[in-house]
User: Fold DNA-binding protein HU from Emticicia aquatica.
Amino acid sequence: MTKAEVIVAIADKTGVDKASVSTTLESFFDIVKDTLAHGDAVYVRGFGSFVNKHRAAKKARNISAKTTVMVPAHSVPGFKPAKEFTEQVKESVK
Assistant:
């Protein structure tokens, strides 16, 4: 499902026009990105958590050049679904 399809589905379900739904959805995405960029997490009860996952520094190899480089420690965004969300998916996909 694409973002456009999500917007249409929400607009059909709620009766709100597509432009308002699109603005709201884009604002939500911007808030999640900004919050994660500042090192905080976003918790949506019953849905899941958007969190930063810390990756330690490590050695990586470039096989074609036969060299080793150090990849510095960094954070990557991650999503951890809530228990209710996980259970719903498990029950529906059988």
About this structure: Residues 48 and 82 are 4 Å apart (CA to CA). The beta strands are 42-44, 48-55, 58-62, 67-71, 74-81.
